[in-house]
Write the structure tokens for this entry.
Amino acid sequence: MSWLLLLVNVILLTAGQVTWKKAIQVQGGLTVRNLPELLMSPLFLAGGIYYAAAALTCLYVLSHLPL
């Protein structure tokens, strides 16, 4: 089960990175002028949720798999 969650963690991290990249592309790049709008965009927030889920999954996996 822990090995499956490790795979889920990798998938969540990848999804977060791809979602953030798409959010930046939709906003026309990362600039100081569009930073507030970017931070509040649904894609950027979804990427943050993916990363939060990955962090929690990582903590669970670290506590259950031997190092």
In short: The chain has a mean pLDDT of 93. DSSP finds three helices and no strands in the chain.
